[in-house]
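User: quick one, fold this
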Amino acid sequence: MKSTTDSGTRVMEATVDGVHAAMREGRLTARQLVQRYLDRIAAYDRNGPGIYSVLQLNPHALAEADQLDAQAATAPSVPLAPLHGIPVLVKDNIECAGMETTAGARCLQGNLAVEDAFIVRRLREAGAIVLAKTNLHELASGGETVSTLGGQTRNPYDLTRTPGGSSGGTAAGIAANFGLLGIGTDGVNSIRSPASANNLVGLRPTMGLVSRSGLIPCGLTQDTIGPITRTVTDAALLLDIIAGYDPADPVTGEAASHTRPSYTEGLHPDALKGARIGVLRSFFGDGLEHRAVNAVMQAALATIRARGAELVQIDEAIHPDALLADTLVHLYEMKGDLDAYLADAPSDVSVRSMEDIIASASVHPSVAGTLENAMVLAGNETEYRERLQRQQALRERVLGLMAVHSLDALAFPHQRRLVVPVGEAQAERNGVLASATGFPAIVIPAGFSEPDADAAHGVPVGLELFGRPFSEAVLLRLAFAAEHAVGARRPPLTAPALT
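Assistant:
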């Protein structure tokens, strides 16, 4: 397909800084940038390889770009806003004014947002353009990114595999260069899983750093919102905009004293020198099915060590599968939090409770059992409180572990084996440590498995760095240096530059 503007090469792997440099030099306008991404979506999302990452386009995106271009033309000496003209892909469980918020569910069609979610308002105030709402695992309740409205999103690196989940639509779209920045949500693994599976950067912030108002919830003790991007620098720039106090989300009360003037400060390729990083051995697999991931991780960690980091082997018996079984609380909270959200939904939405959703018999089969389980668990107050206590004990244990070993971060693969083929349930992910504690974690590209007939580049593998509460600045510095040392980011062959 021929682009309506040019060959499209300028949007391939574009960054905020690179786009803004082109705009200041008069080589690019916001309209041209938006149109090039729209061209790529038209060529590759429902057509071509059929990635199926986009649920709905913003019909006003080009008009918004024109307004930004006009503003820049009338004041050429005024610096560009931090995200001036930057097209953003937003997961479709976050409200964007004038667009439906469906969470991929047919029963939530008609849920037209009157106002922007807090973080979307921040994005627009910074000059960003919401380009599209992206597919997700329906109601953000699974790890494979399949929904009744969007179908199965496919991994652009291996179309036979899932893109992870639940924010897989955002991740697949950013990986395929359908937008410049992405927004996902994370209740257990849901930002970092698709970042790992799509050769991207995904940041789950400390609970309370980023507002969740305007989010269709799964369980607000664990739900948060964060960046999915192609580079660490762009993740830091995005965090600059979305972090901060929101009166509508009381948990952000701590954010005011912890946010930084800019998370891009201190991003330097030499930041690994002198860092102490604990390698959490219990988060690695030891079977044949784990060999591909372990080989990539060993090479990435060796490179990080060569750049000056001290790797400390941690043999603490913290087992991710046990944490999944004993500490998570989202299913205990899901009914109450979702019912509260639906109570204020527009009149065009036919469901007002989880009971209504189940009775509609319209949700994807992979979600139906989750909802029924959540209905049962909603009344189990004793077990819910016990799990909250285990979460607190885990926080104390992990902080003690990091203190004893004087660690700046913990490191491990986000997923112990490769992201699964379409039709299988996601397995052996390690994101539970951050979701159960509420501490921050970032995934960066670690490399690829050996190429095969399905994946000419191999399948992406992500390295996760986990830190203390509100240590995003530390994690971003380490991640930036590791990103530059490992150099694993590359676009998928399925969505090349348009010619």
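User: anything notable?
Assistant: The first strand starts at residue 54 and ends at 57.
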